[in-house]
Every structure is written in C-alpha cells, then in structure tokens.
Specification:
Layout lengths: L19 E8 L4 H9 L4 E7 L10 E8 L3 H7 L5 E2 L2 E2 L1 E5 L4
Antiparallel strand pairs: 1-3, 1-6, 2-3, 4-5
Amino acid sequence: MNPGGGFGLALGFGLTPTAVIQVTNLSSAVTSEQMRTLFSFVGEIEELRLYPPDNTPLAFSSKVCYVKFRDPSSVGVAQHLTNTVFIDRALIVVPCAEDD
C-alpha cells in the first residue's frame, strides 16, 4: 500500500490527469480527418495534430497523432483502441503530458 492508502507505486511525482493522447504506428496514408472521425466517437476533441501534416510533399513510412480531449476521462476510453487495426496497422494509444 502506498502512503495515499491505495495500491500502486509511489513514483515520487504527482500524477495529474491528462487530456492528451499520443497515437503512434499510424499508416502513412492516414489523414487528420480520419483521425478526427475515429476519436470523435471517444469524446469531444479540443485539438488534433497529425505529424507530418497532410500536405507534406515528402513520403514517410508512418505518422504520429496527438489528440487533446475536452474531458480527461476520454483518455482512458481512447486507450482501449490500442491494437485496433486502422487502415493497415495496429494503433498504439498512450497518455501524453500536456506540455505544448
């Protein structure tokens, strides 16, 4: 048991809820509109950024997406999409710090 009375690791730093997820292992063919549509079913999206952006002329083998939800509880729901095959790859969804 940790000092707070619950089970888990005492990590030595505060764990604050985040409203941001990082989605990796994305197909190079994915667009920001497709990501917005997928994650809008999870919760209301405040901001979405896809890297590299849709209009990049260079070819990349994969992309990464950051989604900021209005409600931090949507992060836990979004994590359930990990290993879901989207286009041709299994998504990896993890919480991410909200630093800009």
